[in-house]
Amino acid sequence: MVVAGSQPPESQAMKEPDSKNPSSDSGAWLAAEPIRWRSAGLALLATSLWGGNVVALKIGLDVFPPLWSAWWRFVLGIGVVGLWATIKKIDPRPQPANWPWLVLLGLMFTGQITLLNFGLQFTSPAYGVIILNSHPLFANLVAQLMPSEKRLNTARIAGLLIAFAGVVFLALGRPVASLAPRPQLGNAMLVASSFLLGLRMVYTRWLLREIEPVTALLWQMGVTLPIFLPLAIWLEPPMLKPLSLRVVLALIYQGVVVAGVCFVIWAALLRRHSAATLVSFSFTIPLFGMVFSWLVLGEPLDSRLLTAAAAVIVGTSLVVRY
After folding, report:
1. For the chain, how many helices (H) and strands (E)?
2. Is 30 within the bounds of a domain?
3. Cα(260)–Cα(120) distance, rounded to whole angstroms?
4. Structure confidence by residue, pLDDT tens digits, 214-244
5. pLDDT one-digit tens code per residue, 7-48
6. Dist CA 23 CA 179 (whole Å)
7. Is 87 exposed, middle or buried (0-12, 13-18, 19+ CB in 10 A)?
8. Number of separate domains in the chain
């Protein structure tokens, strides 16, 4: 089983196959294979797409306010994952006894996405992707409350301190004003979102002992819809300015590509490879996010950003690997 909090953001509902029991999950799990060029390419494709998610979200927020943005994203995401489950003949319906636990998962997800969307309104995508991808630190701290989780050792404590120093250093920074009108508020909201993501990953790992991964993913998205829609109608205008093709493509990217296609890619990879091996690729997500923000939005990659990114990547790699 993968270390708590070490999976990519939109695939935390996936678990590592049990090689001793090939039929333990939907479909026939295969024994873990070494990573070859094709799988490495697919893993990098998935992490690059996840890295671009914050840029697409920032573009979409120019027209769709945070709650509407979240609602449209998960309407599209549920459609893609539900279609995939149908094709694979996976029954996502849970046992009634598990409904309360899935609702709690969905509430955690709703809070985390709300903080993410509002936070990115106020800060830049490059800052956002680094702070958000510090979630393994919070996950490993929360996991210390679980008796079955790995205890902190010297290397992991050092990793936590290095990464937290990077997060604090970045959170106190000020990115370019055109992309970050209220950076410290936005950074603080993203730290809170990262904490909830880490908490949710620990909770999801516990939940997957009884529940099909696709069920968990569909429920965590599905619970958000009846919350986001009435709140969006009550609190926000449907659009802030006229719709453009750029914003439509950004929304499709978030809902279809990130919430849907990336999940399918990662599920296929987990059928062949160890999650502990695949997690190494997730450290590229902040790098892709920074590069895409620079290329698409012109965000400068200053020394504070690069220093903090290095600290977070090195620190989280120590936490996850040891």
Report:
1. 15, 0
2. no
3. 21
4. 888 899 999 999 999 999 999 999 999 999 9
5. 454 444 444 444 333 334 433 334 457 778 888 899 899 999
6. 48
7. exposed
8. 1
Closest by CA to 200, choosing from 181, 219, 174, 178, is 219
Retrieve residue 184's tokens: 């410290």
Q: Indicate if the alpha-carbon torsion angle 312, 315, 319, 320 is positive or negative.
A: positive
- At 1, is the secondary structure helix, strand, or coil? coil
Question: Does residue 217 fall inside a structural domain?
Answer: yes
Other Cβ atoms closer than 10 A to 231: 17
Q: Which two tokens stand for residue 190?
A: 């993203």
3-state secondary structure 111-126: HHHHHHHHHHHHCCHH
Token pair of 270 as six digits:
């987990």
d(CA 105, CA 99): 10
Task: Quote the tokens at residue 72.
Answer: 């449209």
Residue 177 lies in a domain: yes
Q: Is 246 exposed, middle or buried (0-12, 13-18, 19+ CB in 10 A)?
A: middle
Residue 157 is part of which domain span?
A: 36-321
Report d(CA 271, CA 260) in Å as an integer: 17
Q: Tokens for 283, please give them.
A: 């450290």
User: Is position 172 within any domain?
Assistant: yes
